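Section 5: illustrative case.
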């Protein structure tokens, strides 16, 4: 596969500075992080949600999980519902299900991003397929996605690092 034409046209038209990474097929952000050789906190997990005031993309690091209570509190909303697979097929028709990119503006969706994405100088995310990824600087991501940063996720309990200490 290759990056869908509307995504590559957007990247080229807007002179987005990015790296295109081909990788073996993956179906989760954590698995993609492993295949593209980046840390889980550098790989973005893209979620499409319905909120009181409309539909949004929420972007969090792969090592975190969306926290519905934090979304409600941070975004002042009561309704938080993930898109169904059918809705994703309709809205992101040019993408494989679950492989949408971080550019919500391509789909008329505002973007909310977790504050924790700002901890690194760059971010990786799917490029419309389960075998294509994009790496770009955080400044490029912000410039082209215009995200609202909010506290919407928590570190996934499976990602805590424990070490045995010997004295």
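Designed sequence:
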């Amino acid at each position: 596969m290759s990056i869908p034409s509307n995504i590559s046209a957007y990247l080229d038209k807007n002179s987005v500075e990015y790296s295109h990474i081909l990788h073996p097929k993956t179906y989760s952000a954590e698995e993609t992080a492993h295949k593209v050789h980046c840390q889980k906190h550098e790989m973005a997990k893209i979620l499409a949600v319905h909120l009181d005031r409309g539909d949004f993309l929420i972007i969090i690091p792969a090592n975190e999980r969306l926290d519905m209570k934090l979304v409600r509190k941070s975004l002042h909303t009561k309704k938080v519902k993930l898109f169904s697979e059918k809705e994703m097929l309709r809205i992101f028709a040019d993408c494989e299900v679950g492989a949408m990119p971080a550019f919500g503006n391509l789909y008329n969706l505002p973007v909310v991003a977790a504050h924790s994405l700002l901890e690194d100088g760059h971010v990786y995310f799917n490029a419309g397929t389960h075998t294509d990824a994009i790496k770009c600087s955080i400044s490029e991501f912000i410039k082209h996605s215009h995200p609202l940063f909010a506290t919407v996720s928590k570190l996934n309990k499976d990602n805590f690092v424990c070490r045995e200490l010997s004295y």
